[in-house]
Amino acid sequence: MSLADDVLFRLLKRGESASLRASGRAIRERFQAPASGYWRLSLDQRDHCHERLRAAEKAGGIELKWAGQGGDDRPIELVQLHDTERLAAFLGVNSMAAAVASAAEVLAPWRKRILRVDELLDRWSHLKNVRGLSTVAATEFADALRVMDSLEERQGEDQIVRTLSAQLFGDSKRIEQLERHLDVLTGESITSPARHWSEVFGRLGLVKEPQPFLVAGTGALELVGGEVCPIVRPFVGVSNKAVLGYKGSPCWVLTIENLTTFHAASQLLDGRGALILYTAGMPSPTWTSAYSRILASLPESVLTYHWGDIDVGGFRIAAYIKQKCIGSRRFRPWLMDASRLVSVARGAPEAESTRALMAKHAASAGWASLSESMMPVCIEQEQIKVAVPGLE
Predict the structure, then answer these.
(1) Could you give the count of Cα atoms lying within 13 Å of 1 in the half-sphere of its Cβ?
(2) Kind of pairing between the strands at 62-66 and 76-81
(3) Nearest 5°: CA angle at 295, between 291 and 298?
(4) What pLDDT sits at residue 347?
(5) Is the peptide bond prior to 376 cis by the omega test (within 30 degrees of 0)?
(6) Alpha-carbon gap, residue 266 to 113, rounded angstroms
């Protein structure tokens, strides 16, 4: 970029920042200092610089102050911003005000229904990108909102990501390109840390491929059509949508986040009267519906547990299961207290912001004691020796 354009873009950025502060101070770039790049220009380069700045002045974007001496070769002493809109037009870019207005027009169909859209526009109007995304990404956010609309219309059914993407956009990979946008639109707040793509998609009901509802333990699943599916060893898998209820008398129910751990835990039941369910990470809406129907078939006295990774995502999954399925039932963490797993806790302590988020989600899961004593430690489920309640 030439010195002239570098100066003009700096003036534009400073002018837009000043307008947010309602500052009346003049926005200037001075060239008098000997260290200024202006004085390192050759004569030809300086002539081109003058030509470019004169054109910007003629367009009404800036004002130039020239030295009092030097004749036709006199130097420029300072460049002062005159009008941000005219300067932006001269540079061939949208001013921030114009860019936000354009983005608002693109996102207008969703502004009344989805509050996050106005939060997004507000951040942009204050010259702040969201997760690295500027007003240029407005059309991508619009596509992400179309995905959310489609999922809302198809409530009760998980959607295969690439199939839905091809149906909506004629591009089977488009939705995967919108993961960051969907995360921003559906996160707890617009400034929330990024979530893993599987958590974002899972909560929306977007799956890479159909996921069976995996259950280990005792009793039988009641399925659509009046069918009864005995839970044989080591486990059974059915469609989430097929589950209507449960027949049996388990002493507890344990949900497990990761597949490897679920497989290992299912081997430990040995005919014990209990249930273990695999959540497939962040459970989808159809999974939570199936689990809710199973719990509705059980007495309130049956204990429920959850075992997930000891990290922000793991506790967020627990809080989601509590919100969607557990209700007033007793709900306990299983092997999610890092203070009792010191032997497998390795690595440097996590940042306080991470520990605070873990504690927040643990509290939302109803685990006040664990929340208050939360350690700044993350432990993957696979690092922990597999055990189940009553058999540890």
Answers:
(1) 9
(2) antiparallel
(3) 150
(4) 67
(5) no
(6) 44
Query: Taking the CA atoms of the chain, what radius of gyration do you get in angstroms?
Result: 30
Q: Which amino acid is at 140?
A: E
Closest C-alpha to 287, from 332, 317, 261, 247: 317
Residue with tokens 């001075």: 30
Q: Which CATH architecture has domain 213-383?
A: 3-Layer(aba) Sandwich (3.40)
Q: 280-304: per-residue pLDDT in tens?
A: 999 999 999 999 999 999 999 999 9
Concatenated DSSP letters of 282-329: SPPHHHHHHHHHHHHTS-TTSEEEEE--BSHHHHHHHHHHIIIIITTS
Q: What is the pTM of this model?
A: 0.79
CA dist., res. 339 & res. 1, Å (int): 55
Residues whose CB falls within 8 Å of the CB of residue 369, separated by 6 or more in sequence, listed in order: none
CA distance 224 to 216: 20
One-character DSSP codes across 123-134: HHHTT--BTTB-
Which residue intervals of 108-253 are DSSP H helices?
115-125, 138-153, 161-169, 174-177, 179-186, 197-204
- Exposed / middle / buried, residue 214 (Cβ in 10 Å: 0-12, 13-18, 19+): buried
* Domain span(s) for CATH 3.40.1360.10 in the chain: 213-383
Which residue ranges does the chain devote to CATH 1.10.10?
A: 3-91
pLDDT at residue 392, as a whole number: 46
| Helices H / strands E in the chain, number of each | 15, 14
Reported in sequence order, the residue ranges of the chain that DSSP labels E, i.e. its strands, are: 28-30, 62-66, 76-81, 159-160, 206-207, 213-217, 220-223, 228-230, 236-238, 243-247, 252-256, 275-278, 303-307, 331-333
3-91, what's its fold? Arc Repressor Mutant, subunit A (1.10.10)
Q: What is the DSSP letter of 30?
A: E
The number of residues in the chain equals 392
Between CA 134 and CA 140 the distance in angstroms is 11
For the chain, helix, strand, coil in percent to 5 are: 50, 15, 35
Minimum mean pLDDT range among 59-73, 88-102, 121-135, 329-343: 59-73
